[in-house]
Amino acid sequence: MKIEDTIGNYNLFLDRIFLNLEKSGIGQDDISELDHIAFRTETPDRYEDIKNELLGFVEFNSEENFNGRLISVLKLKEPLIYKEYMINCIELMAPKENNQHKEGLEHAEFVVNKKLDEFLAKYDNIDFNMSTYERDENRELIIDYKDCAIKFHEQSLLEIRGLKV
């Protein structure tokens, strides 16, 4: 079994992500890391099924209840490779109450190589979703597209969870 059997074709998903990134005018020279990709499930049972399927590919799973739903950060034994990027983890999300989202790969998150305030100032022409920009931990800038989202951080999810070596 391959990881794609569980999460789908992540290369096609990342092709869409990078096409949207290019259309937004964000330069890859402002990105230091493709931190992770995120998979959303439609039901709590599917969350457990997908998590169990992925456990064979992971070195470590950090699961927390965040905003009323379970989220797993799955550190992969072998990184996913996309072009020159190595993706070391997958974020698996249980649905929120009154879930309206389809199951599948939902977003990619990037670590920027400058302060988030500087990144925002440089790309002030972009209509970022600022809903999590002011939070205390791991604030982010988000660009929502009709079929995916891109998020930008100062720190990787593995660093936030204390899993990065």
Break the fold down into its secondary structure elements and pairings.
Layout: H1 4-7, H2 10-24, E1 31-40, H3 44-54, E2 58-66, E3 69-82, E4 85-93, E5 104-112, H4 116-122, E6 141-144, E7 149-153, H5 157-160
Parallel strand pairs: 1-4, 5-7
Antiparallel strand pairs: 1-5, 2-3, 3-4, 6-7
As a percent range, the share of strand residues is 35-45%
Largest sheet: 7 strands, mixed
Could you tell me the CATH topology label.
2,3-Dihydroxybiphenyl 1,2-Dioxygenase, domain 1
Number of domains: 1
Instruction: Report Rg.
Output: 15 Å
**Proper CATH architecture:** Roll
Number of helices: 5
For the biggest β-sheet, the strand order reads 2-3-4-1-5-7-6
Shape call: globular
* Run of helices and strands: HHEHEEEEHEEH
Q: How many β-strands, per DSSP?
A: 7
Question: From the structure provided, what is the oligomeric state, counting identical versus distinct chains?
Answer: single chain
- Would you identify the CATH H-level superfamily? 2,3-Dihydroxybiphenyl 1,2-Dioxygenase, domain 1
- Parts with pLDDT < 50 across at least 5 consecutive residues: none
Distance between the termini: 28 Å
Proportion of helical residues: 10-25%
**Mean pLDDT across all amino acids:** 91
Structural class: alpha/beta
Question: In brief, what are we looking at here?
Answer:
With 165 residues, the protein is of the alpha/beta class. It has helices at residues 4-7, 10-24, 44-54, 116-122, 157-160, and strands spanning 31-40, 58-66, 69-82, 85-93, 104-112, 141-144, 149-153.
